[in-house]
Specification:
Blueprint: E1 5-10, H1 12-29, E2 35-41, H2 45-54, E3 59-65, E4 93-101, H3 105-115, E5 121-129, E6 142-146, E7 152-153, E8 169-172, H4 174-177
Parallel strand pairs: 2-3, 2-4, 4-5, 5-6
Antiparallel strand pairs: 1-8, 7-8
Helix pairs in contact: 1-2
Length: about 180
């Protein structure tokens, strides 16, 4: 797998340090409020686990599938939320935890769905943000890192279900996905 990586963009230590900072910020913001952290599967699972462990207050957790890539390197424009009917979020302070915000389509669809379920509050945390790729205006409340418009993998992010287990974020060589 290492031979497929053009460049390490974010090291394990950089990730660990920034996620602890995000955890402290979330702890301060929700100190007197119950919090439901919603992990968007699959790419967010590594970030989610580290983030909730760095939050210093009780956190309820939930998991949801959301898809728009479908084994490609760009969003299809179609967003699927197959677990949406199972979410019991009414009256809760919800923190959506996403791996990467790219076009914004997935988060926008999810945000609209959750707001329709009468959440008490809704915020978004993302490990990575690619503002250059945004086609839908979406605000991110907690951002780990802004990254360039490159195809990144590792630390939960994948290409065709590979590279999720890399302990860092790397730029995937173009010849792998072209």
């Amino acid at each position: 797998m290492l031979a497929d990586i053009e460049k390490v963009l974010l090291t394990e230590e950089q990730l660990r340090t920034r996620i602890r900072e995000l955890g402290r910020n979330i702890t301060a913001d929700y100190r007197d409020k119950p919090l439901l952290a919603l992990c968007i599967l699959r790419g967010s699972f590594v970030f989610f686990a580290d983030l909730v462990r760095s939050v210093g207050i009780p956190v309820e957790v939930a998991f949801m599938h959301a898809a728009s890539y479908f084994a490609d390197t760009q969003s299809s424009g179609e967003v699927q939320l197959p677990d949406e009917a199972m979410l019991a979020v009414g009256g809760k302070n919800v923190l959506i935890v996403e791996d990467i915000v790219d076009s914004g389509r997935t988060l926008n669809a999810l945000k609209e769905t959750l707001l329709g379920k009468n959440v008490s509050s809704l915020k978004i945390a993302t490990l990575l943000d690619k503002p250059e790729r945004r086609v839908v205006d979406i605000d991110v409340d907690y951002c780990g890192f802004q990254v360039p418009d490159e195809f990144v993998v590792g630390y939960g992010l994948d290409y065709n279900q590979r590279y999720r287990n890399l302990p860092y974020i790397g730029i995937l060589k173009r010849e792998i996905y072209n």
